[in-house]
Structure formats: structure tokens, C-alpha cells
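Milestone M4 deliverable, item 7.
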Amino acid sequence: MTIGEELNISLGRVNLLSKKILIVTGDAAESLEVYYPYYRMLEEGYEAVIASPSKKTLRTVVHDFEGWDTYTEKPGYQLESHLSFADVEPSDYGGLLIPGGRAPEYIRNDAHLGRIISYFLANDLPVGAICHAVQVFATVEDKSYFNGRLMTAYGACRLDVEALGAIYGEETLQADGNLVSGHAWPDLPGFMREFIARLEKQANLEASSEAAQGVN
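Output delivered:
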């Protein structure tokens, strides 16, 4: 490895950890799907920021599969959100995570969510959506971001994926460009691994660009 390559990797790591990661959710988020990504980002050294329709104490839920034709739901942990959607400046963040649960079905009605999600898609930044999270993409006016993309979601949300113009993948973990999607909480290890890999790639690309500009 050359000195220049080592420098780019070091700069990439600095750039990586200087970026905050945004998590958009609300009441009735699935506990594992919000806590696991949140703590995983903190473990990696990021500042992870939880945004919701209003800044408040969120009530999460536990979804499980107990022989019903659908999932069951029980109360989960409480979780503090850090700011409201209205106060989010998307350019402050290097990646977006969207947990599932029942939160997506109502947070998508917030007037500010569309502009937040659209920023990450328009700038080709890492976006991770798991389980019911696909429902929030209905807020994005330009659906061309999804045309022909391979995505997955909880099985009951297959129609939501296809309505975007995306292809529903049968595998429970999908990564297409900077868009990572997962079926449900059992897929979180691979889901977060793919998301973090894209954050690192993005940071190294930015570091290489900055290094090149410095030479010039």
C-alpha cells in the first residue's frame, strides 16, 4: 500500500466519523429495529441522531412471530428522540436509517419527511430501510430513484415495494447501490454490515476527492 493510499484511508476514517447518522422513526417503532442500528452506529464511533415527528419520548413495540398469520405486538422500551423532523438539516448527515414497526405508516404523513429522504436519495448517500420502512418512500415525489432497483421488505409490504417501481427480492437482505433493505429484525446483522460498508466506501471516495484537490 502506498503512502497516498494510506493517507486516503486515514482521511476517509476522519471524514466517516465526522458525519452524523440520521435515524427517522416514531412511536411504535419495532424495538430491535431501532435500538440495534442506533447502538451499532455508536459502537462504530458515529454520532447517531434519532428524529421523529416531534421531539419526545418514543414508545417502541416488540413484534414477534408466534404462529399467527401475521406478527404479534407487545409494548417495548421507551426511547428519547433528539429532534423533530422539522428541525432536521439533511446535509448534516452522511447516512439515513429507517426502522420498521408501525411507525412508518404514520410518520410518512409528516410534511417534512419527504424532503429529508429525498436529500439522501438525490445525493446517493447510504440509505437503510428494514421491514415496514419501505412505507415512508411514498413521501418521495421522484420515484425514479427506485425504478428497477432490487429491494426487500416485510412480506406484507411487497406491494409497497412494487408500487415504487422497484423489484421485490425474495432474499431477506438486499443491497442495490447505496440502498440497503432488509425483511425484518432477524436480518439486522447483515443489514448493518452492508450499511456500514457503504458509509466507509462513501467516506473513502470523499477523501480521495479531497486529496486530489489538494494535489492540484
